[in-house]
Amino acid sequence: MTPVKINLFISCDRSDQPYLQTLLSWLYPMRDEVNLWYEKPPPEPPPLPLPWQILLFWYSPPNNRSEYYRRLQKQKERAHIYLFMTSYKSLNNMNIQGDISLAVNRRIATGDELNPLIFPVLLTPSNWKEQSGLAGFKPLGTNKTLSENKPVEEGFLQLTNQLAKYIHALQRRLGEEKYFHSRLVAADAGTGLTAERAHPYLGDDDEAMKMPEMKEVYLPEWLGWAIIALIAILTYRGLQPPLPLRPKYYRSASERPVEYKREYPLAPSEEPMIFTEE
User: Fold this and answer.
1) Angle at CA 97, nearest 5°, toward 91 and 23?
2) Are the C-beta atoms of residues 219 and 51 closer than 8 Å to each other?
3) How far, in Å, CA of 120 to CA of 118, rounded?
4) What is the chain's alpha carbon radius of gyration, rounded to the nearest angstrom?
5) Which among 11, 21, 8 is positioned nearest to 156, based on CA atoms?
6) What is the pLDDT of residue 11?
7) Contact yes or no for 140/82 (Cβ under 8 A)
8) What backbone torsions phi and psi does residue 83 show, to the nearest 5 degrees?
9) Residue 188 half-sphere exposure, CB side, CA atoms within 13 Å?
10) Over 163-202, what HEC string results?
11) C-alpha span between 268 and 21 (Å, rounded)
């Protein structure tokens, strides 16, 4: 049976991105066991070159940001571990506070042994116990904030070592739950009796949570200008009146085309025609 890959969601304020990037580099060796999820919205699609904006005035480049946030919400709802990068700036971020509420509600609704784990990661000194919903959760790492650790690598080392223990224990427990769930469903033949037991996310729908790829539309600017120039030339020529036919002049009689001599010419004869009555 394929082991369950742990879904780790990291909630971080944009101003604390340097801490996030350092943490991701420390967690990179766990990439085969852990899905590292965090908010990284795709950039706005670049505008089309000016000539193509003129030619395709009704067209707008595809924007998949709405699809990105839809899948990001699914990631938040199916995470096994939540890390909240906590600083005085993150306390004023309403999106992070919403993520905390989601994680806490999931922890309450799920079974005791299979509930998602919630860990604050203290970046800088703050009143996180008084101003957030993380007061009842133990932070990862040392008793100091990461900014207070000297060197700072010591704090990240302690943090990743503690996190690795939780990941391995949770992966083993989820593997047992996945095996139990498959046996129970097969025995009940889909009667729905498994609903009495809490079921965390066991990797049943990973495709629905993969982030969409940004598809860029490349249109060369020179080609747009060439099409506009061609349209302008054809339009100008179409608006011009037709030129009058000019008689054809020949330099000499030898250049004049020879007329075909008919055996019975169509010209009337010189003799008068006499009509008689019968």
Assistant:
1) 70
2) no
3) 7
4) 39
5) 21
6) 92
7) no
8) -115, 125
9) 13
10) HHHHHHHHHHHHHHHHHHHHHHHHHHCCCCHHHHCCCCCC
11) 105
Residue 154 has pLDDT above 50, yes or no: yes
Residue 199 has pLDDT above 60, yes or no: no
Which of these, 104, 128, 130, 129, lies nearest to 117 by C-alpha position? 104
Question: Taking a C-beta distance cutoff of 8 angstroms, is the pair 115, 106 a contact?
Answer: yes
Q: How many residues does the chain have?
A: 278
The first and second tokens of residue 144, run together, are 């100091």
Instruction: Record the tokens describing residue 10, joined without a space.
Output: 């990291």
Encoded tokens for 31:
């990439």
Q: What is the pTM of this model?
A: 0.69
Tracing tokens 């860990």 back to the chain, one arrives at 119
Q: How far is CA 128 from the centre of its chain?
A: 33
Token pair of 97 as six digits: 């506070």
DSSP string, 32-99: TTEEEEE--PPPPPPPPPHHHHHHTTT------HHHHHHHHHHHHHT-SEEEEEE-TTGGG-HHHHHH
Query: Which region holds residue 62: left if phi is over 0, alpha if psi is between -120 and 50, else beta?
Result: beta
d(CA 89, CA 68): 25
Q: In this model, does residue 230 exceed pLDDT 80?
A: yes
Helix (H) or strand (E) holding 20: helix 17-27
Higher-confidence residue of 259 and 105: namely 105
Domains (range + CATH), the chain: 6-209 (3.40.50.10140)
